[in-house]
């Protein structure tokens, strides 16, 4: 699909970008990583007359601590968060979150500011930032202002940003001693949006929960702060009984709808289980317990990542899917994610020979594929699929 025609600007400074946004008003859209805007434009679900690309503003990409906060530039890539030694050491909940966003191609382009400003309830960062009680900095023609995250998400794909404002910075309070966090996500396949996910941040005083943050992903029209679940655990011993009670209450606070990712009951059950797991891990990490990997991902090298997915899958599953040791050179590989093979029926049952991946001894090379995510449930893909299933059922 081809987007509608549009004008393109690539400002080099924030002030220039704000001027352009003021000039073009509602006809303009901000381009950060492009992982949501560009697919929408290709599907003609968004047709801005002017696109303002922030990628030339290098001042908006950084990760540092200052004045009691971790400050993250809005144009910081997810792969940079994932690779940051500071994030992995002191902010494990952010590291957990960044590591399960999309796939390596997406994370190398996607930005944390874009993830928040898009205000998709299926995005991963909003729940994490709610649990951490962060603030975001917005800049516009009238200067800068700070917005608490609790008042930032005002509706589906809607935020407190004014039409002429740009999100420029995320400010995370430096957690006190004996604080820990975790983010757990269940997805239908690697790189998908969550069926449900939970972020938990806990500060302990002895064995008592001194501060608790719990937030939920993709189980409502906006990311949900599980305030009653937090209250159920606050000031109480960090034991299994209290964790289970908080998890039960969190599942009641979820507001899921049924879609192809599961029923309402299934999603509530996911919230309950994931809340308990996230709380256990957050608490255990500050009691000297071993930190488990929420996505079964061992440590991976820093820097831009390849598309091997080994850090996202158990080694057993990786061998089961790829079976690379059993393949011979020049053998056509079918059904390998990223191979470029088209789904059956997509082009009348034909699969282009040039788009198939060929294996090599000991490893698999994949044909190039676009670094874009498809839309999640409640959007075009799932609606069309549901309509097709209904027509098939009516035909008998």
Protein structure class:
alpha+beta
How large is the count of helical segments? Answer: 13
CATH architecture of the domain at 181-287: 2-Layer Sandwich
Average residue pLDDT: 81
From N to C, what is the helix and strand string?
EHEHEEEHHHHHHEEEEEEEEEHHHHEEEH
Radius of gyration: 22 Å
Helix content: 25-40%
Total strands: 17
CATH fold name of the domain at 181-287, please? Enolase-like, domain 1
The low-confidence parts are 295-381
The CATH class of the domain at 181-287 is Alpha Beta
Give the full name of the CATH homologous superfamily of the domain at 181-287: CO dehydrogenase flavoprotein, C-terminal domain
Separation of the first and last Cα atoms = 33 Å
Strand order in the sheet with the most strands: 4-5-10-6-7
- Largest sheet, described in full? 5 strands, antiparallel
The shape, in one word, is globular
Beta-strand fraction estimate: 15-25%
């Amino acid at each position: 699909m081809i987007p509608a025609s549009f004008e393109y600007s690539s400002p080099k400074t924030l002030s220039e970008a704000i001027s352009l946004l003021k000039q073009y008003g509602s006809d303009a859209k901000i381009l950060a990583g492009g992982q949501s805007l560009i697919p929408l434009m290709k599907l003609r679900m968004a047709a801005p007359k002017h696109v303002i690309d922030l990628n030339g503003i290098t001042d908006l990409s950084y990760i540092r601590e200052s004045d009691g906060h971790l400050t993250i530039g809005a144009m910081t890539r997810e792969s940079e968060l994932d690779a940051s030694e500071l994030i992995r050491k002191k902010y494990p909940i952010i590291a957990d979150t960044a590591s399960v966003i999309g796939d390596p191609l997406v994370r190398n382009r996607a930005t944390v500011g874009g993830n928040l400003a898009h205000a998709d309830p299926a995005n991963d960062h909003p729940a994490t930032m709610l649990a951490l009680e962060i603030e975001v900095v917005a800049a516009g023609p009238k200067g800068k202002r700070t917005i608490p995250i609790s008042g930032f998400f005002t509706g589906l794909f809607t935020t407190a940003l004014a039409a002429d404002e740009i999100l420029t910075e995320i400010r995370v309070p430096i957690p006190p001693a004996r604080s820990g966090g975790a983010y757990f996500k269940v997805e239908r396949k690697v790189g998908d949006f969550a069926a449900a996910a939970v972020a938990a941040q806990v500060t302990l005083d002895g064995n008592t929960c001194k501060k608790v943050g719990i937030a939920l992903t993709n189980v409502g029209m906006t990311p949900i702060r599980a305030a009653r679940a937090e209250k159920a655990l606050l000031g109480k011993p960090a034991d299994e009984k209290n964790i289970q009670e908080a998890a039960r209450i969190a599942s009641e606070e979820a507001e899921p709808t049924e879609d192809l990712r599961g029923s309402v009951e299934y999603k509530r059950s996911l919230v309950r289980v994931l809340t308990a797991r996230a709380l256990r891990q957050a608490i255990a990490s500050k009691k000297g317990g071993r930190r488990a990997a929420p996505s079964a991902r061992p440590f991976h090298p820093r820097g831009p990542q390849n598309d091997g997915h080994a850090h996202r899958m158990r080694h057993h599953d990786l061998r089961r899917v790829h079976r690379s040791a059993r393949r011979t050179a020049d053998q056509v590989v079918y059904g390998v994610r990223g191979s470029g093979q088209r789904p059956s029926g997509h082009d009348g049952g034909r699969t282009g020979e040039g788009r198939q991946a060929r294996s090599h001894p000991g490893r698999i090379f994949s044909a190039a594929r676009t670094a874009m995510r498809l839309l999640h449930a409640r959007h075009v893909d799932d609606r069309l699929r549901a309509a097709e299933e209904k027509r098939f059922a009516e035909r008998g």
